[in-house]
């Protein structure tokens, strides 16, 4: 519940004066509804059902006095005219108010969505190392609509409450003992059906957990679909899917049962109450006919509102866990925000390395409780405009070292320095502004090749794109694509081979005109011919930018100015290519022999 209030307060913070205006609109609509009721009495007296005096009712007496001189038809025309005017006014106001409410609600949800997405973009990389991707994906896609629905329920409940308050006030004015009796019954029923709101909350918790598992599961399964199909694992996944969706189905049916049960009791009670009400009105309180008619009309409108308050309350209770999840994520994101990253602008002064990037006695581990370090007392220097190759067995710590060099993660001990100055969060952002990075698993969007390239440099001309494609050895196969640069690459670039994907991502990185080019195993998926092209490209680029390559294909790094050989988180060999190669007992020679 506390989380929900946080978002209601935020709603006020977002909507400002529009929210009270919205509430005033609601009150006006309810008032007009009440006013309409008072017109019924003179109308009914005109028809001959009541004595015309209006029996001391407010507005009615005023109206009766004003119409005294008119003939019966004139009176009828005026009263019906008033009736139509009030209904029209009410309809116009209600329409405007509903429009207004929707704008506030949708605007607010967009605002929350943008906040979360911005928070994710601004979060430190360590956040993504410790969280399951599907969890925040789930909040962005499934929980936010629930929060939106919850906010709608809050606004709706406020409307119903206001409406109820105005009508109850009218009813009290007309006959307070009768109204109090009815309200007491309503309160008793609300207390008796409280258990349904609790059940709704429990089902809401379960719905959140189930939907989290569902999102997590299908995200993982769909990413590993090729493995599932190749290994004939369809049956296991289908079993999992069926069991989970069956639980989800039961959860929704359960919630519906809770709602229908409470509504059932409200309906039952309404029959009993009406009988009791009429008995009390006629036999005990002896309420005059005009008032009785009006109270009956008021309560016949009010009772469904009681029921909708109950049902709205249950629906709100069901969405409460979504508010809690959203609040938790927002809190987590606020705690891991990268200093100086506003996610909307590039750094004012991108950091260009003129001297060297250096690691002084750097230690790092993913789990601070773990016994050993992932990177263990690293000492290195990467001179600007040089080409450095990092090699080593799988799991040696090569990718972790790169993350550290560009400030995605921070050392536990020691310092990373750029041109002799420690790399703090702000400088790391400025450094990454000039980095071109080709990750281990290159990512392409389901868009055309041109759009994929423009992602890195929106203003890039066609000539620059071809130049980057030439440099990355992509030109020959791109020329053969059916629509050239306008060819659709398919989901995650599925229409290209692994090697082709990597070369396109390399072209994209080059389009940024980076000061530092980083290739993480960029050559692992290349065929021998492309490998030669890449090697030539690297040779061409050498000297114009700082290049750091993590290479498994050792032939691509023959021209490297420096080779760092890693094992078990430590640098065990370091030096120029031929120097490291000449150590015949060293790991590098062994790796070369293995590849030969
Ligand atoms: N997010 C993570 N959380 C915990 N441990 C991790 C994480 N990423 C990597 N590691 C561990 O850190 C060690 C170094 O991993 P890293 O990816 O840096 O190695 P690598 O040399 O790049 O390997 P490869 O050549 O296979 O990519 C490995 O033991 C790995 O299991």
Can you describe this structure?
The structure is a single chain. With 596 residues, this protein is α/β, with parallel strands linked by helices. The protein has two domains: 2-335, ABC transporter type 1, transmembrane domain (ABC transporter transmembrane region fold), CATH 1.20.1560.10; 356-595, P-loop containing nucleotide triphosphate hydrolases (Rossmann fold), CATH 3.40.50.300. It is 64% helix and 10% strand. The chain has 20 helices and ten strands. The chain has helices at residues 2-15, 18-47, 60-66, 72-122, 125-130, 133-174, 176-192, 194-223, 225-230, 234-284, 289-335, 398-405, 425-432, 449-454, 462-471, 475-480, 498-511, 528-541, 577-582, 587-595; strands at residues 356-364, 375-383, 387-392, 413-418, 421-422, 435-438, 516-520, 546-550, 562-567, 570-575. The strands form two sheets. It has a six-stranded mixed beta sheet, sandwiched between helices. α2 runs antiparallel to α11, α4 packs antiparallel against α6 and α6 (133-174) packs antiparallel against α8. The radius of gyration is 36 Å and the shape is elongated. The two termini are 66 Å apart. The mean pLDDT is 84. Adenosine-5'-triphosphate is lined by residues 129, 366, 374, 392, 394-400. One of its GO terms (cellular component) is plasma membrane. Pfam families: ABC_membrane (PF00664), ABC_tran (PF00005). The chain crosses the membrane at residues 21-50, 70-93, 149-170, 176-193, 264-285.
